[in-house]
Structure formats: structure tokens, C-alpha cells
Design brief:
Blueprint (H helix, E strand, L loop, with lengths): L5 H11 L11 E3 L6 E3 H17 L4 E4 L5 E2 L5 E9 L1 H5 L6 E8 L2 E9 L4 E6 L4 E3 L2 E3 L10 E4 L9 H14 L2 E3 L4 H9 L5 E7 L1 H13 L3 E3 L12 E6 L2 H14 L6
Parallel strand pairs: 3-5, 11-12, 11-13
Antiparallel strand pairs: 1-2, 3-4, 5-6, 6-7, 7-8, 8-9, 9-10, 13-15, 14-15
Length: about 260
């Protein structure tokens, strides 16, 4: 496969962000439930990204959130894309939303770009090359678990899992500093990479929510894992656990295992 330079990918992502409208000039539809929505901007951004990336890298497949775009079979490398992570925020004019693009090769994330346009924060990482925000190196904090801020959520699209989530979150909350929730996994993981929080737990995430930002976090010195303590799948839903250190990541996992002996989905 041709070597991918992160700069043109970042340029394409920045260009796609111009299709995100802060004036409310977009349509909003649900995708089967009131919690799961899509806007015309999501579709426009995804169409632009896939068109431009396919033009420059025609041999690479796609796994995208919208329109069930799943073209991974037979491809050595795949783009994993969330055109707008935090659509519910975006639809309300909330700045906690972003474009997330990852490149996965032979099942391993090797490039990640997360752009938060209304903050003008471009987070990038390539495997083995560190993590950056607007070109400046970033690193996770060195705060211990007890001083950590926990990003988490209550399984918005699977509310039947919310009781399990709340029990786990309660135990973690009693041991850490406090809890935060922005409504965008990719934004939260990127903020962790830059040292603004230390802990993360979601019982079920889709790969386009975490693949790019997960690479950015690990390249910034953090740790991620799934329910089994392994690398989360880049191609299917996963429990997603992350922290600024491996020890804190394991501590979150140990707490989860007190409540769950297997994945509840």
C-alpha cells in the first residue's frame, strides 16, 4: 500500500468542516429512535470525505457511520469515519462535536485525525510518531486515579444497559475526583490526550467513535482496552476503557469486572 502522509488527510478533514453550519441551516432526522439522529450536514461531510479520500487513495476501503457504508471486505486498509461525532450537540449549536477519520491497516490503527472546528483544534497522530494538537506535541497528564476526571456516558442508544452503567460509574466516581460528559467520545478522548482528563468508560461504542481518537490518546502516552483487556476492535462495537496510565486503565477494568462477568450484548 502507498505510504499515507497525514497532512493531505488533515487538509481534507479541515475542508470538510466547512460543510458544518452553525446557523441551523440543516435538516434533522432520526435513525429509528429519538436519541439517534442524523443531520444533512453529517451526510454532506461524509460524502465529501469519502469522495476526496477515494480520489486520492482509491485502493482503501471505508467504514462510516452514516448510510451503512461498510466497504471493508478485501481491503488491506480501511478509512473509519464519523463525519460528525456529537451530532446531538451539533444540532443544538453546541461546540462539542468533531470530524473523526482513522486509517486502519491489517486491523491496526495507524493514522488518526480529529478536528473540532469551532475550537479550531486539530488532533493528529501516526503510529509510533506521537500525538499533536495544531502541530504541537501533546501528552496525557500524570495525575493519579484519585485525582482523575472521568469521562463517561449512560449508553444513549442502548438504554437497557444504563443500570449496569450507573452501577459501574458510581463505583468509579467514589474513587476518582469527578465525572464529565461532553457528548462526543472523540472530543473527550482527544482532551484526555492533551491532559485535560484522565479516565474513560463507555459500555458500548461504535468504532468510528473511538478509533482515531484512541490512537491519538495512546500516542500521547495513554492506554486503552476493551472488556477483555485487549485492543478494542476497529470494525465492530466494543466496550471502551481508557486512562492516562496502564495502571488506571486496569483499575477501571477491575471495577467493571465486579459488575459484569461478560459483555451484556
Amino acid at each position: 500500500m502507498t505510504q499515507i502522509n497525514i497532512q493531505p488527510v488533515s487538509d481534507i478533514v479541515r475542508a470538510a468542516s466547512t460543510l458544518m453550519d452553525r446557523t441551523g441551516g440543516f435538516e434533522v432526522h432520526d435513525k429509528g429512535t429519538r436519541e439517534n439522529i442524523v443531520t444533512s450536514s453529517d451526510l454532506a461531510v461524509q460524502h465529501f470525505l469519502t469522495e476526496q479520500l477515494r480520489l486520492h487513495y482509491p485502493e482503501i476501503g471505508f467504514l462510516c457511520e452514516e448510510e451503512d457504508l461498510n466497504d471493508i471486505s478485501g481491503h488491506e486498509a480501511v478509512w473509519v469515519i464519523d463525519p460528525i461525532d456529537g451530532t446531538a450537540n451539533y444540532a443544538r449549536g453546541n461546540e462539542n462535536c468533531c470530524i473523526s477519520v482513522a486509517l486502519v491497516e491489517r486491523g491496526e490503527p495507524i493514522l488518526g485525525v480529529v478536528y473540532s472546528p469551532w475550537r479550531d483544534e486539530l488532533y493528529t497522530a501516526e503510529k509510533g510518531k506521537g500525538a499533536f494538537c495544531n502541530g504541537m506535541p501533546i501528552h496525557v497528564s500524570d495525575r493519579p486515579f484519585e485525582q482523575g476526571l472521568l469521562f463517561t456516558a449512560m449508553s444513549t442508544y442502548r438504554k437497557d444497559l444504563s443500570k449496569k452503567c450507573s452501577d459501574i460509574i458510581y463505583d468509579l466516581y467514589m474513587e476518582c475526583n469527578d465525572v464529565r460528559r461532553t457528548g462526543s467520545a472523540a472530543v473527550e478522548l482527544s482532551l484526555m490526550a492533551a491532559g485535560f482528563a484522565e479516565l474513560y468508560f463507555e459500555i458500548r461504542l461504535m468504532p468510528w467513535d473511538y478509533v482515531a481518537a484512541g490512537l491519538i490518546l495512546t500516542e500521547a502516552g495513554g492506554a486503552v482496552c476493551d472488556f477483555e483487556g485487549k485492543a478494542p476492535s476497529p470494525f465492530k462495537p466494543s466496550m471502551f476503557i481508557a486512562a492516562n496510565t496502564k495502571e488506571s486503565c486496569q483499575r477501571i477494568l477491575d471495577t467493571i469486572h465486579k459488575h459484569l462477568d461478560k459483555l451484556p450484548y
